[in-house]
Amino acid sequence: MDRKFEKLAFFLILFPVVFFYFQMPAFQLDVGTDYISYVDMYKYGYNIEYYYNKKEYVFYYILKISTALRLGEQSIFILVSVVYSVFWLYFIFLLKNANYKVWIFVFLYFTVTGIYQNQLNGLRQYMAIAILPCLFIVLYNRQYFLALILTVLASLCHASFILVYPFFIFIYLKPTPLRVWYLFLFSFIVSALVVPKLLPIIVSTLFGSYAGYFESALSASANLVSVITKLYYMPLFLLAMYTYKKEVKLGLYDDSYDMVMRFFMILAATYWLFIVNMYFGFFGRVAQYFMIFYIFPMYYLIAQYIQKNKVYSTVLVICYILLPYFLKVTFLATSEYDYNSILKGL
Question: Do the domain assignments include residue 200?
Answer without folding.
Answer: yes
